[in-house]
Design a protein that fits this description.
2 copies of one chain form a homodimer.
Chain A: E1 10-23, E2 26-33, E3 43-44, E4 47-49, H1 56-68, E5 76-83, E6 94-102, E7 117-122, H2 123-126, H3 134-151, E8 163-164, H4 165-176, H5 182-191, E9 196-203, E10 211-216
Parallel strand pairs in A: 1-6
Antiparallel strand pairs in A: 1-2, 1-4, 2-3, 2-7, 5-6, 8-10, 9-10
Chain A binds a DNA duplex (27 and 27 nucleotides) through helix 5.
InterPro entries (chains A, B): Nudix_hydrolase (IPR020476), NUDIX_hydrolase-like_dom_sf (IPR015797), NUDIX_hydrolase_CS (IPR020084), NUDIX_hydrolase_dom (IPR000086), WH-like_DNA-bd_sf (IPR036388), WH_DNA-bd_sf (IPR036390), WHD_NrtR (IPR054105)
Keywords (chains A, B): Hydrolase
Protein name (chains A, B): NUDIX hydrolase
Chain lengths: 241, 241
DNA sequence: ACAAAAGTGTTGTAATTACACCCATGT
DNA sequence: ACATGGGTGTAATTACAACACTTTTGT
């Protein structure tokens, strides 16, 4: 309990975001290009320092709003994990809180970003190329997102205010990377109370029968869950095994 | 990207632990009594500062070993959430990483603790009385534990090396706070591949038929999950709604 | 008419629930 | 003998996977 000198090293805290969306039938993540050393010119997850009188969650919401140009509170944002291995940032002792954010397919090419460049990239393409330990962070956030689709109504966060069941199904297929039976999916989501609220409108696309439009319902959890055929749920563990 | 003065406030990081166990048919948590201001004399979750060249996960494992007197790597330990609201600690800017740890019913009354006192307390009794924001932290960890019992084999972490199915069932009943059908539970856990490994021994208690002994199997996930009748799964969200 | 996507029906199977019932031990 | 907890059998119910099939639009 007595504070010995090395017992309370001061450090800096950042909030890094994995902002995911579905664009062009792919799962994409918002990246910024680093303008300074280290990793100058490399792509990284957007993020920034937590300010002196700021809650980490608030810092994440602020970053999210800055990067997307949208009101961050309108988007899904959740804490995922802390990454604090010494040496993970060459500039010194920096611990980061990783956040998962979900955005609908934004029309804008991301304005107002404070980095030298920002763009959406397919996660498959981004994984393995990122600066710092951001590949690990992205992988962890991806796993969280895949899991959340099973047990929660998170998938609707990928959709605009009004969406069709086909669009929602595409979210599942893209995030999980596997096909989902259209017929069973339709029944499942329409019969889960509170998942979808039907609207009195239809959307007619280029081809095919017009689809009914829905908006998000009040439910946040899915019971029974929407299960993937191949199950590989793993509880995040901090044990040093 | 340019580092303005207030953009990288330095702060101190702690790791706080909710160490849970089942004792006397109750879910209990390990608490320490604070020896210094603030909250002197109040009970709090064990924890401590993350050292200068230490990973937060390693700090948690170290604290766990100190408090329980056991090798921390033998116990289940997982990151749960970050609590960093400014003002949560009157001593200054302190952000904490909350960890959930699970221990079997330890025979020792916790030796070697560095706080002025340490003891197991029923969580029902502890909730609402703790120092700092530890009530919130404990509640969050509890919810995580309840959830993990559904989808993972975490319950075995509450048991000693060898245990009976009845003991395992008690864990579920105590953590969930609801009765579990003995017959169906037995079938469920014995038919889930990799959950339990039968031992060639039986334990005969004071009364009743001797029960077969088992040890943990290699499985970490439960499929299909062990579902509670009343479902209230809620994904932790950091959105400032 | 045809292609394409939306949406409904049906059937076999897996899993859960809610029981009744038997087994092995100490007193 | 009987109480107590361990363990098995069975039937009704629910949910799901895998299909065939119909509907509604644009070309």
């Amino acid at each position: 309990m007595t504070a010995r000198p090395r017992d309370h090293a001061t450090l800096r805290l950042t909030a890094d975001l994995a902002i995911l969306t579905v664009r062009d039938g792919q799962l994409q993540v918002l990246l910024v290009q680093r303008g300074n050393e280290p990793y100058r010119g490399r792509w990284a997850l957007p993020g920034g320092f937590v300010r002196e009188d700021e809650d980490p969650d608030a810092a994440a919401a602020r970053e999210l709003a800055e990067e997307t140009g949208l009101d961050g509170t309108a988007l899904h944002l959740e804490q995922v994990a802390v990454f604090g291995t010494p040496g993970r940032d060459p500039r010194g002792r920096v611990v980061t809180v990783a956040y998962l954010a979900i955005a609908p397919d934004l029309p804008l090419p991301v304005a107002g970003s404070d980095a030298s460049g920002a763009c959406w990239q397919p996660v498959d393409q981004a994984l393995g190329t990122l600066a710092f330990d951001h590949n690990d962070i992205l992988r962890t956030c991806l796993e969280r997102a895949r899991q959340a689709l099973e047990y929660t109504t998170l998938a609707t966060a990928f959709c605009a205010d009004a969406f069709t069941i086909g669009e929602l199904r595409t979210v599942y297929e893209v995030v999980w990377g596997m096909p989902v039976d259209t017929r069973n999916f339709h029944r499942k989501v329409t019969k889960t109370a509170g998942f979808l609220v039907p609207l009195d409108a239809k959307r007619t696309s280029e081809v095919g029968r017009p689809a009914a439009l829905y908006r998000r319902g009040p439910a946040t959890t899915l019971y029974p869950p929407m299960l993937r055929s191949t199950v590989d749920y793993d509880e995040p563990s901090a044990s040093s095994t």
